[in-house]
Amino acid sequence: MRRPIINAHGTWQDALAAEPGLDVYATASPSDVESADLVVLPGSRSTLADLDWLRRLGLADALLRRAAAGGPILGICGGYQMLTEQIDDPVESARGTEPGLGLLPARVFTLEEQVQRTLLNLRRTATPLLAGEPGSVLVWMQATPGRRRLGASALAQVYGQLGDEGPDVAPRALAALVGIVRGLRERGALLAYHDVADGGLFATLAEMAFASRAGLDVRLDEVTGDPLAVLFAEEVEATVVVVGSRGHGAIKRALLGSVSDHLVRHAPCPVLVVRDEVEEEG
Q1: Which residues participate in catalysis according to the annotation?
Q2: How confident is the model at residue 265 (pLDDT cuts 50, 70, 90)?
Q3: pTM, full prediction
Q4: Which neighbouring-strand residues pair with 190?
């Protein structure tokens, strides 16, 4: 079903659409809701507001009629919450207790501690946005040294090919890489992040530059191998991290040097460090 504050296109829709003989589409029609073989209520960024919308358009009544006739309904996340008897939300919507559709014998609670933890996690989320702080370095870490497989990459698909070999995951190297990134985040040294597996190195650098409205001067003179493979291989373990001093003066900038040196010396994978040549007055 289509709703105004629905979450982004979900993998569940892709999975269903891939099944032969299935026609998957979004709808806001009560008649479609009653006649479909399966109705999916997806997640929502605003459960109670979307539930109000369903009622205004007659979709809530259509769901009740469908359930009474034995038609299957699948609720995902916020969609599941709408199917319950009661929704208690004194925090996010500040509306208190509201009735759900009453199709499931359950009651949903939103606790203030949950919201606080969610907000804390959001503040610590790394994005591709380059902070542009003097003294920061752009770090390319590879957990699969020398492996630049183009199978199933965006480049291969552009030419209508699949390739002979696709990237795979080395569990121990991946765990070590995640540990490094997590440690940098905990220390407040991680300013931006992008996964090279999502499009390759070229797409990673381009998306970080576009998001930041900034230019990048990147030299890969010391990187050997097929240039196309270097730029477009989507190795699962490769990441791009920006480590910065956050402008806390010369002492903090010196700490940055120790962070990058620690990465080079102790990372369980090759590390390419690109230093910002902009000098900060101090």
Answers
A1: 77, 194
A2: low
A3: 0.48
A4: 243
> Strand, coil or helix: what is 190?
strand
The per-residue pLDDT for 39 is 92
Domain boundaries, the chain: 11-119, 126-275
pLDDT digits (tens, 9 = 90+) for 119-154: 455 556 678 888 666 667 778 877 777 788 888 888
Q: Which amino acid is at 84?
A: T
Mean pLDDT over residues 254-271, rounded? Answer: 49
CA dist 123 and 157 (Å) reads: 36
* CATH assignment, 11-119: 3.40.50.880
232: enclosing H helix or E strand: helix 227-232
State which CATH number among 3.40.50.2300, 2.60.120.20, 3.90.1150.10, 3.90.650.10 fits the domain covering 126-275: 3.90.650.10
Distance between CA atoms of 227 and 270, rounded to whole angstroms? 18
Same fold, 11-119 and 126-275: no
Q: Reduced to 3 states, what is the DSSP secondary structure of residue 149?
A: coil
Tens digits of residue pLDDT in 178-225: 777 777 777 777 778 888 888 889 999 998 888 888 888 787 777 888
